[in-house]
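We now fix the convention by which a protein and its fold are recorded. The integers have meaning only within a learned vocabulary of local backbone shapes. A record is reproduced here so that you can trace the correspondence yourselves:
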Amino acid sequence: MSKRTAIIDIGSNSARMAIFEKSSRFAFHLINETKGRVRIGEGAYNFGGVLQEPALKRAFNTLEEFNAILKSYACTKVICIATSALRDAPNASVLLNKIRNELNINIKIIDGKTEAYYGAVGALNYLKEIQEAVTIDIGGGSTELAKIENGKIVDTISLNIGTVRLKELFFDKKKSIEHVYAFISEIIETIPEHFTCKTMIGIGGTLRSLSKIIMEKMDYPLTTVHGFEYTLSEHMALIHNIVNADVLNLKTLGVRKDRYDTMREGCAIFEAIAQKFKATSIITSGAGIREGAYLCDLLRSHHHKFPSNFKLSLKSLKDRFSFTEKSNLSMKRLAGELFETLTPLHGISSSYTYELGMACELYNIGINLGFYQNQLHSFYFVLNNLNYGFSHQQKILIAMLIKYQTNKLPTEEDMLTYKTLLPDLRTLHWLSFLLSLTKTLCNDLSQGKISLSYQNHTLTIETEKKLFLAREQIKQLLKPASFAIIIK
């Protein structure tokens, strides 16, 4: 697998390029993302799918600049795929030949089922563990669905309804919304019954934009759209209002200007399919066809799925920024033992040992940016980069524990911004204290053996190490409850 790989996706509305850099066998990170609104399908749906000259020119100019960028990044592998617009176009070979001859890029036109599969592979590997769901990717010319059962992709389907297609056939011609719904309904009736599912995973620009609108209206504490979840019934009225709004009123509903030409169409498709499935919850995926295409190449000998318990963001951060990995893993084990030993005192659910362990693995990655206030650097690293394989609640808890790994405990005021995603203050106090105590006991990075016991309101720590520095530092720690700590 190449060190740096460029994935180009030519859709009906946009062409996008993502450049990924590997950091270890399965870990990688995004180093460039470029988008061009080529609208290659513009005008085609009124002429039997034939691509029009202005659109062909925009597509070539965009790929020409993509080519310059990927060469600047020294990409050694380029995977270029095209979807609905080129799939439907009788004259697609005109663009394919010109791109191949003049830019030395080979474009592979993929069918709808492959497109749906790529999107589902990206979502499954990037999101928290998903057992049952159906992915929905609304594009310019088509909409793809993939059914997930027991954590595996079991079926895919592609529907000939997309935002650009609806825009040109209905919205541009001022046809009634009833005509739009009738057209969509006829097509979605072909969806097999086994695709019906209460949980949907939203992929693609329309559904990510919709999630951003909802997040803003909720005053959601994070800006990361990947992993954002919402209850559909609470926001169906908004979706319906967007579909029925005229262009001038879209702004008042929170729609960005660059989405005016496709948002109503995309929401109409989403609304109809969600109602057909009687869906109740939506999970937003920031990963889609480009990430799926990359993963199908990277994981081709592993059934297109990361190994069990592999977390992409965690491994990628550690590859690039962790310089005491063995010591951090030793800390993780000790933190778990401290948690268990003090369970009679704190009474917190053992499920929180996971986030506590992750905080131990990542607590000092910010030192690479600068030693002073490094816990704040680590906090921001985690808050903005621990996205894949973690829920928003997990990410913000890990980040907060790292931020308060010092000799102070977080206050209600400190929690205020992220309160809706965090556990109660008492739980946060205990987890923060346990991280601070663990870090203090492992201060010399020697990974020596430590035995723990708790009785009569006393935590006894037995070790062969002198722990001279730790004895003094422990006195400075603020404890969330009254108990003694003795080192033998």
Observations:
- The chain has a mean pLDDT of 94.
- The radius of gyration is 26 Å.
- The chain has three domains: 4-109, 113-291, 312-487.
